[in-house]
Amino acid sequence: xxxxxxxxxxxxxxxxxxxxxxxxxxxxxxxxxxxxxxxxxxxxxxxxxxxxxxxxxxxxxxxxxxxxxxxxxxxxxxxxxxxxxxxxxxxxxxxxxxxxxxxxxxxxxxxxxxxxxxxxxxxxxxxxxxxxxxxxxxxxxxxxxxxxxxxxxxxxxxxxxxxxxxxxxxxxxxxxxxxxxxxxxxxxxxxxxxxxxxxxxxxxxxxxxxxxxxxxxxxxxxxxxxxxxxxxxxxxxxxxxxxxxxxxxxxxxxxxxxxxxxxxxxxxxxxxxxxxxxxxxxxxxxxxxxxxxxxxxxxxxxxxxxxxxxxxxxxxxxxxxxxxxxxxxxxxxxxxxxxxxxxxxxxxxxxxxxx
Amino acid sequence: xxxxxxxxxxxxxxxxxxxxxxxxxxxxxxxxxxxxxxxxxxxxxxxxxxxxxxxxxxxxxxxxxxxxxxxxxxxxxxxxxxxxxxxxxxxxxxxxxxxxxxxxxxxxxxxxxxxxxxxxxxxxxxxxxxxxxxxxxxxxxxxxxxxxxxxxxxxxxxxxxxxxxxxxxxxxxxxxxxxxxxxxxxxxxxxxxxxxxxxxxxxxxxxxxxxxxxxxxxxxxxxxxxxxxxxxxxxxxxxxxxxxxxxxxxxxxxxxxxxxxxxxxxxxxxxxxxxxxxxxxxxxxxxxxxxxxxxxxxxxxxxxxxxxxxxxxxxxxxxxxxxxxxxxxxxxxxxxxxxxxxxxxxxxxxxxxxx
Lengths: 355, 355
Description:
The structure is a homodimer of 355-residue chains. Chain A is an alpha+beta fold and 355 residues long. The first copy, chain A, has two domains: 2-35; 40-353, Glutamine Phosphoribosylpyrophosphate, subunit 1, domain 1. Helix content of chain A is 40%, strand content 22%. In chain A, helix 4 runs antiparallel to helix 5 (142-152), helix 5 packs across helix 6 and helix 10 crosses helix 11. Strand 7 (249-250) of chain A pairs antiparallel with strand 4 (157-159) of chain B.
């Protein structure tokens, strides 16, 4: 009797699904026709934080927008011409690394010791291969070295002097540490150090930072995620870490699963934010896992992780991501995030502040 | 009509579940009675690899078994007396770190430069706090330093000299790098270096390593996972890395999500194996995600990751884990894994080889 009733119930439920074609079904069919053309697209971030219009001059905003557009168009063109997702991510990040506007490469912030220690990582969604470097001081474009680690070493992650020896052995471009000196970043370090002293001394109001300046000393990574015409996903991240960092601190940017993740079955993700919370939340992989195991869309998964799980831990920041079907997401829980994207049709989106 | 039929179907299915109590239900009730008593337990590993009985002397096997038992009993007693999962994991790992038998602490393997560079990480499942250190050369018990990073720094991961400065500032026990010299590990380095030369020269058969010796130069981490009487989970991992490692290579042991993960909602996991593949697979967090998002049991999730996903990537190794209900898993795809566990009842399991 039990089995009979279950069969009846199953038959009843099945019959509810055999309706005639609705307009929605027709639209669905059209979409699947279109999706036979290989899709592609790219998205980038230049850091999340307390980015407010009232703190930004028009000329500075213009400079950011121009650089974001240059970077995203560079990656998009590579994809359009049939290049790989890894190459598009690399060249897009190179543009941001070479600009003093972003906390990566040239514009890297200063550590407590007044040095610049850079981190980067890359992941190729086609074979889940990955490369990462941490704490390098003489590598002009850390994302290039991460790619060398992925392709030309048996390792995933190299750190410090050893990573630089490897860089020299594979011919990655090295520069004098002086290359990373920018006056504005050096002044940020001085201000934060003075502010710390102030917090101890309570006697120097002039050097005090606003709360958002202090918070944002943790931010400013750059990153990109791309889907190429061959159906391969890749993501990469590059950073100078946090201003005034000490003790050889490593954030999420070079951590596969936290700062960077890509998997052709799901999506490619690059993170930016308060690194400690992104490591503890395994943020980049968590978005992929929510898609793969729970059936969420990329947009749903990103919202769940960035708007619920990350703030619940006490963290903040954002991610950019693209899924295997070319859907693009730029999700953040901070006041702003430098960001840009371009899809297959060439639709350009550039953003700095919250919506 | 559609809604009515769905309601009918739901009612039919619901009615199928209101049967009278079966013997299985009674057993279930008894189990849930028992589970009201807080459960606890602990599991450890001392590395996975090509561990075969024919390569092991009786006295050596005895030495391993004794040390594994001493370590697991130490952690178990802490839990029995109401101590925390973090403390149980720490003290269990300390025993393994202080023994020259395992590739962690005292018994750490040598890098290509003839130094010992140690990594460790810890995660507290109650608040998802975590700490990790990479590339330290003077810290007697790296797991202790990882716990200091978790508790007494705003960071999750510190590396190299900076991590040692932090260690000095919080009073973690430091030793002369000479402390980590063990003759057998130093001989392993020489043999591997000779073997590498052999592979280039093809002229020195005597120095050649067997394939399993070469493979296992990547292995030998120690780790533990525990559930305490307060319902909190924790996991920790400590390693000397791989023999002959160079370029400041960082493996999975200090990577939260890869080598170590703990979350009171799911499980606590410590990994051991070919670190690069464990990073790319985000192994420790993947097991937790399969439980949380896909509803798998700990045993199912561990089997999926270690017997399917990890070998599919080309990696090998194993994990130990305990879930929030006290279920213990020791899963590996290598010939053997040093391992031990003790549950609430005090049932002791010790293993070295495959079943």
